[in-house]
């Protein structure tokens, strides 16, 4: 591409301003998939909704791997891009299954904001808490959607209190449910005091419901609301006015307040106010931190015209006919175009950007241009690692992707001892790719590694791929540790519980393995001069 082909900075700024790159996080079954589907419905990408059940039955939409088909779940995070009203949304898919893995966390590094979905009957669940913690550390703005209001729910005020208590963030209701369970019929906007009153369609959630707008003052006279529900609503809103947290966009963008919305992804009640608010207040792509080869910390603005991106995920065998791997890049500045001459910062090698494969509703399509906030997948023959920086110009590396404390540990060995060579090659490559973490005895990186993971599924993927790609059947013997922490401070003076084990990660950093949470908390309390880190 010649310089005259460079898009103007004005054009680039316009494209940046209309992008929203976000992830939807939730505990399994809270409704993430249904909500994503409704975003597609409201954007006009889907004519009718209702594929969630079909997806679970035949796994037709996102299978790239035999095992995934069998289990009917989405194993590796991918992205979808489509227009929603005036903006272009990039939705990053974070696998929400029980067996979620490091990919789920890593995906968050490519997101500018997050929608957190909570089941109104269950409140904040375990996986939500873990994912939220990763958002909090990176100060990613989080919007909360309290879902399933068409079913029996907990008290919405209780749910808000729980969000605050468990997640340690202020919650500020941006709208409020009118009724709950069978009586749930709308949401009231807290700024305008206008109720969006919905009427279910015959197709129950497959199409948009009819919407009627009425003012709070007219609520009691409306046949669908009536005096008693209107009085209850009035009292709840008064209470919120007195005791609720104030909301400002600045506080949301700073990760201090989570705006809360209520609704039902299944019936579509309350989903449009959530989406509309997201495109209005969620951040567009902004600056990213980087370090030059001389060790200087710098800021890379998205409207710098030179292309810069980082690899946040590698996914093997997208196409089972080819032994390729797709590296997913998030664009941080400039514009991607095919054949653009770039540098792989880690190796210093120059190359021409190949045609990308961008996943749009799980179909590969060739995109022509990509702007900051966009996700592109390019074929990798093993040259990319997670966290790699790719630059059109300059000499810097984006800040490294954090590592997340593994919770499962195992010794893995080949079932057939004659296959040692293939086994070692496979483990080393899958470790480098980030499919699992490899740990070594402290100061003995040549020894046999301990294989560690955030979720059990990572071991299953490892075994599947070792056999499928390297022809090695493996056995996994779990080790008796269930949590870990990186040690900051002098390891020699650390008073380690006798049952804990000190190992080193792939970057030679000390990591402690503990049998249980109690042991870890005890060690932390006993060593006030050291820090135990869950995320490095
Ligand atoms: P996930 O991706 O977070 O795991 O959740 P998913 O959307 O798959 O939803 C889990 C189940 O909850 C699905 O039911 C889905 O239909 C249902 N669900 C999601 N949102 C709502 C809601 O607002 N109200 C009600 N009543 N149900 C909701 P399923 O039985 O597992 O699948 P399906 O056969 O009903 O599609």
CATH superfamily of the largest domain: P-loop containing nucleotide triphosphate hydrolases
Widest sheet, order of strands: 28-25-27-26-30-31-29-32
Q: Give the mean pLDDT.
A: 86
> β content, as a range?
25-35%
Question: What ligands are attached or bound here?
Answer: guanosine-5',3'-tetraphosphate
Number of strands: 32
Assembly form of the protein: single chain
Quickly give the CATH architecture of the largest domain: 3-Layer(aba) Sandwich
Tally of individual domains: 3
End-to-end separation:
39 Å
- CATH class of the largest domain equals Alpha Beta
Low-confidence stretches: 51-77, 358-364
Largest sheet: 8 strands, antiparallel
Which secondary-structure class do the elements indicate?
Answer: alpha+beta
Number of helices: 13
Account of the protein in words:
It contains 13 helices and 32 strands. With 536 residues, the chain is an alpha+beta fold. It has three domains: 21-72 and 112-281, Rossmann fold (3-Layer(aba) Sandwich); 288-398, Translation factors (Elongation Factor Tu (Ef-tu), domain 3, Beta Barrel); 408-533, Alpha-Beta Plaits, CATH 3.30.70. An eight-stranded antiparallel beta sheet has the order 28-25-27-26-30-31-29-32. Helix 11 (420-433) packs across helix 12. It is globular and about 80 Å long. It starts with 8 loop residues before the first helix and ends with a strand. It binds guanosine-5',3'-tetraphosphate.
């Amino acid at each position: 591409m010649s310089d005259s082909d460079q898009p103007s900075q004005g054009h680039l700024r316009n494209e940046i301003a209309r992008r929203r790159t976000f992830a939807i996080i939730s505990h399994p079954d809270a409704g993430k998939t249904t909500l994503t589907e409704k975003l597609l419905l409201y954007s006009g990408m889907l004519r009718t909704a209702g594929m969630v059940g079909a997806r679970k039955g035949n796994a037709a939409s996102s299978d790239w791997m035999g095992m995934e088909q069998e289990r009917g779940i989405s194993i590796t995070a991918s992205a979808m891009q489509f227009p929603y009203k005036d903006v272009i949304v990039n939705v990053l898919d974070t696998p929400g299954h029980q067996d979620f893995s490091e990919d789920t966390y890593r995906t968050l590094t490519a997101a500018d904001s997050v929608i957190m979905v909570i089941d109104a009957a269950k409140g904040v669940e375990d996986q939500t808490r873990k994912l939220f913690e990763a958002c909090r550390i990176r100060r990613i703005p989080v919007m909360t959607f309290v879902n399933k209001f068409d079913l029996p729910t907990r008290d919405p005020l209780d749910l808000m209190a729980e969000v605050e208590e468990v997640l340690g963030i202020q919650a500020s209701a941006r709208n409020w449910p009118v009724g709950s369970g069978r009586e749930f019929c709308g949401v009231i906007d807290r700024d305008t005091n206008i109720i969006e009153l919905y009427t279910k369609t015959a197709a129950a959630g497959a199409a948009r419901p009819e919407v009627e707008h009425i003012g709070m003052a007219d609520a009691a006279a409306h046949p669908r609301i009536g005096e008693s529900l209107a009085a209850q609503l009035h009292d709840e809103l008064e209470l919120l006015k007195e005791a609720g947290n104030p909301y400002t966009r600045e506080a949301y963008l700073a990760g201090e307040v989570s705006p809360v919305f209520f609704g039902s992804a299944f019936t579509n009640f309350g989903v449009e106010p959530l989406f509309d608010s997201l495109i209005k207040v969620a951040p567009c792509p902004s600056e990213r931190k980087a370090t030059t080869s001389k060790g200087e910390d710098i800021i890379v603005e998205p409207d710098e015209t030179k292309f810069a991106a980082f690899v946040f995920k590698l996914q093997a065998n997208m196409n089972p006919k080819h032994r390729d791997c797709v590296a997913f890049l998030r664009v941080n500045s400039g514009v991607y175009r095919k054949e653009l001459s770039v540098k792989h910062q880690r190796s210093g090698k120059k190359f021409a950007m190949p045609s990308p494969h961008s996943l749009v509703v799980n179909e590969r399509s060739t995109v022509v241009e990509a702007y900051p906030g966009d996700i592109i997948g390019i074929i990798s023959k093993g040259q990319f690692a997670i966290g790699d920086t790719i630059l059109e110009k300059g000499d810097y590396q984006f800040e490294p992707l954090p590592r997340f404390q593994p919770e499962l540990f195992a010794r893995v060995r080949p079932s057939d001892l004659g296959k040692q060579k293939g086994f070692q090659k496979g483990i080393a490559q899958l470790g480098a790719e980030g499919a699992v973490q490899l740990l070594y005895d402290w100061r003995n990186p040549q020894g046999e590694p301990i294989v560690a993971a955030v979720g059990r599924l990572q071991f299953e993927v490892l075994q599947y791929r070792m056999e499928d790609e390297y022809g090695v059947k493996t056995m996994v013997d779990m080790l008796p540790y269930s949590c870990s922490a990186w040690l900051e401070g002098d390891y020699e003076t650390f008073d380690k519980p006798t049952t804990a084990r000190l190992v080193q990660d792939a970057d030679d950093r000390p990591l402690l393995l503990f049998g249980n949470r109690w042991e870890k908390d005890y060690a932390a309390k006993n060593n006030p001069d050291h820090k135990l880190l869950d995320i490095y």
